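Chain A, query sequence.
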Amino acid sequence: MKKLPNILITLVLLAALGWTLWRGFAHRSEQEREKKGEKEKAETEKKEEPVDFTVKLEKGKWKALGVEMAEPEKAELRPQRMAFGCVMDPVPIVTLDGDLSAAEAALAASRSEYERTQGLLKGGEGVSRKIAETAEAQFRADEIKADGLHRRARLEWGVAFSAMQSAERRSAVEKLVRGDAALVRVDLLPGDALAEMPSLARLGVLGREGEMIQTANITPATDTDVKTQAQGFVLRVEKPAFALRPGMALTAWLEFAKEPQKGFALPRSSVLRHDGATWVFVQEEGEKFVRRSVTLVAPLDGERGWFIAEGRGIAADDLIVEVGAQALLSEELKAQGGGEKD
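Chain A, predicted structure.
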């Protein structure tokens, strides 16, 4: 019986010691979890902090680099939609014009013969009814053939082309053959659709953004692209600034006669492409230049560069680096200890 209290005391002490050790380990694990959470939070916040892309150069140095600044030029841009397409092969329309011309010439000849024989027959002159009927049959056959080709022209190339007179149509086709005109098929992005016809189209070719081509001759496409199922248009370009070869890819900006959007024109020399984004340098202080991300809406005509919407990263009183932006980017990357990325 004397051993029982000793055993109970021993058990109590062991239980207390175990509880103490368990609390110690639990508290330590909790502290480690808290520290780990704080570390992860700090790393996350560090990643989310906006990177300040700046470069500081003394005035003498950035002047030596040929850096020049100017306030952005105000510009306006009419509402527009982007479309993509290519220059069409003129061979099908040239072939159709040849078939139409031949059918129209045959129809004119058979009509004349039909009218002549009908006049002789009614006047009782020397012409048999069989000859008159043969002339009429030929005339009706040529009329059906010509009408069928006109319907085909309307289905393939639209009302405007099928409604042209022979001389006008041949003149238009001859321009396509000589390269004085070109037909361009463009399609909107899949899922996009227009309820109204564009009033103007501006076409650009990669590498020749400074030579935009304009045309107001726009007609709806008579078919739908099987792959994209997008709404399409056929544009006729007269006297392009450079040769438009069949198959040449183009980007089109279709404009509408509505209230224009206000913004700024950025010279091409001020726009940088780096790390998959588009940037400009803005001088914030005498020796501080900040690289800002911008979204280019559409190219402008001539040497005006690119249009950027108002309130999208550029203000009217900003000093935009128009000359030497690439040199500033190189200096920035040097300061970061890295090389320039495409």
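Residues 91-170 form one domain. The CA atoms of residues 181 and 238 lie 4 Å apart.
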